[in-house]
């Protein structure tokens, strides 16, 4: 019987610990316990046999660490130990019946953004393991002890795309109900449920007593079969050894309580033994499978650590979109990811709940950009994302690398569009936003829009997408062009909400297009719409009046129970401090590090002086004074940077004014390519150099950290760079710096400056660098010498 | 795998961010306060502690019942007179790194100060762990030397992966190591402390005796 059929009617008893049992087998497992599948197959088989004799219906192969990274240095390849591991487990299974699961554990390297392993590399490693396990004849794949939801997603996709086997997945949580990487129980349940795993749950790290409340929480978020595979209590150290000290009686009792919640796939992890499980299984066998359904249909999306339930009005931030934004377009053209990331953080800080991500812009590779931008945003912001593109290919690319459950923006009533997008939403477990229009355009009446919405809903259900994951945009029309349109839109919002029971969105600001006092009209329209049922206004959250209105609405309508969110937003909000620029010179404002005041002062000065003159007479001299005081030890790094950031705001005012007037007599110098070398992840020094150099008028192409030598060479050639700056913090990574320099010198003769904690002028010379810059001020001095 | 009490001392955070002395502009001071509060909320400290028997050999210190051998003359010196040691790993967690990244995107002042706050946090956690171990040893009539970490003196920091593996730091604290021996989460520390029967003669982890004192930006003066 297929395992999925088996769990329909039966409690599934899993096995217990492999590692801790092997450790007690008398043969030291060494660095690669998986090698025992080949060197001591009888020992591994005896563990499987002991569990199956004790009553386990499913055993996990001894392949937990059979990843390319963890197996490095072993005499066997991952494929060899996987093949041997599956084979020996199947032989034991022949005697007892039951199932053999290919066991997959974490790769042992942190994924981006926490570490340097890319999502795509992780996928490849898992795919290799899955192919080997499937070829060897495993009945299913069991992904376990994971702490990073992103890594789990890579693994689940690797299973789904490389074999037809069922997939079970468990992660390890701490008592704070989060994993080490910050994944929450709800985010795990929502994301993995969406990705279509066959069962999900928790293993390792804690004992059954601690897992009881977690199992309860999981039941709220998913109807999937749940797995609980705890340790034998909490580990503690006794005489150098990790021991687990729960009694088998206590283990069994706690597990029975968990099973009463409707958890039907149970076993043990570290510290559990065949004897302990046998005792528990004898009791478990007296139960029949309990079905407990507690999950309510809720509309929710999530990132890895944050779940957003659409049970009150939630703001979708619209600022990550180049339409009508010159600076954003420029950031896309130059690959300035920090600029885009800043838009995300600012919206998060302003009160957005979900961020729309649109990077469609003529002349750029939208798919590649979507991948980069989604990854970058996830590295600095924990809000769920809405992937926004007209191209299905771009949408798929964005959904694939998105960590959590996203929204797809968008489909509409056209059949072709529905057939292209809905399968993607289904595959990646995303919610879908449907525009109430079709091939005939936007209908005039609310009723016609509701008809289209119904069509979209029906199509989604046909693709097995849940109703609560379908959102409808009832479409805002400019009031200046069609005055009566606004009321039809509001009517449609109400009908979709009440008649179809779906959540709705509106791109609010269209309403005021072509009108004066736009914010007033936007705010009034949004409030009217929220009262008619609008659940997710798509707005600029940085507009305080709009965001405030949402918080007030949630408070008044009772969604914000007890007014907690309202109070935490407004309590202690201070009047913005009056600009003091009149009392100080521009130079003084910069020296004090007052950013907004500096920007204001530059704006006022632009009325009387040219941009060039302000830069030459005020900004650069102010920076020189700060730089000199830094060199002389009068001020220190934080203040130097505060001044640099203030000056940067001044330059921002200049660029904005130049963009507005088309004036470009202030040419940037360079460009300079900077990077933190391969293998190094410490990039603060590099970031400081970037800020300071940009202030001195250099165009800086920042390649980020952990940058491969060839990527530096490519950027230097691609941008025709005049100077390269490389940073490295560790002696181990200076080697990569040397390789980069060698490659650069072979490719041409661009001057190279280097910096970093372990470098000295001598050391810099030895590895072939032309200049050594101890700090950002010296980097500017080098640039002044090299770039005339 | 336990959580640890900690506070982020403003002076320490500023020192790690490159600030010296007492004078501070209002703007930097305000930003530091804000960032320290944010960082405090982001830190999820975890530690792994193992007590092990040791044997001093000709080229280092062998950890008994394991394949781990600490290399170099300096670690030998550090553990001279000890028959046991503690090996610890302490981390401020991956949330701290995420917070620093977010602040760095806002601007370099926030980023720099958040980084300093993260370092101050993990160091303070280490102090807490060390203090607990010291108290515990007192009840046994024993003494603790001080924290000696890979990278100090000739104790190679390329031993970082072996130490993490010995502690099973990935499993118990979520700490891993890159191929270049950099620990991730980045605000993590490993250290070795000797357990001595008699009070160690002098405490030598001050800046004055550090072999790297000439090229260190963070000396406490």
Essential attributes:
heterodimer, A: 788 residues, alpha/beta, TIM Barrel, 5 domains, eight-stranded parallel β-sheet, eight-stranded parallel β-barrel, 30 helices, 48% helix, 14% strand, B: 221 residues, alpha+beta, NADH Oxidase, six-stranded antiparallel β-sheet, 7 helices
Task: Give your account of this protein's structure.
The complex is a heterodimer of chains A (788) and B (221). Chain A is of the alpha/beta class and 788 residues long. Helix content of chain A is 48%, strand content 14%. Chain A is globular. Chain A folds into five domains: 3-284, Homocysteine-binding-like domain (TIM Barrel), CATH 3.20.20; 314-404; 438-566, TIM Barrel, CATH 3.20.20; 574-666, Methyltransferase, Methionine Synthase (B12-binding Domains), Chain A, domain 1; 668-788, Cobalamin-binding domain (Rossmann fold), CATH 3.40.50.280. The model of chain A has no long low-confidence stretch (mean pLDDT 93). Chain B has a single domain (10-215), classed as 3-Layer(aba) Sandwich (NADH Oxidase). Helices cover 40% and strands 20% of the residues of chain B. Chain B contains seven helices and eight strands; from the N terminus they run ααβββαβααβααβββ. In chain B, helix 1 (10-16) packs across helix 5 and helix 4 (94-106) packs antiparallel against helix 5. The model of chain B has no long low-confidence stretch (mean pLDDT 90). The chains are: A alpha/beta (788), B alpha+beta (221). The interface between A and B is large, with 60 and 59 residues.
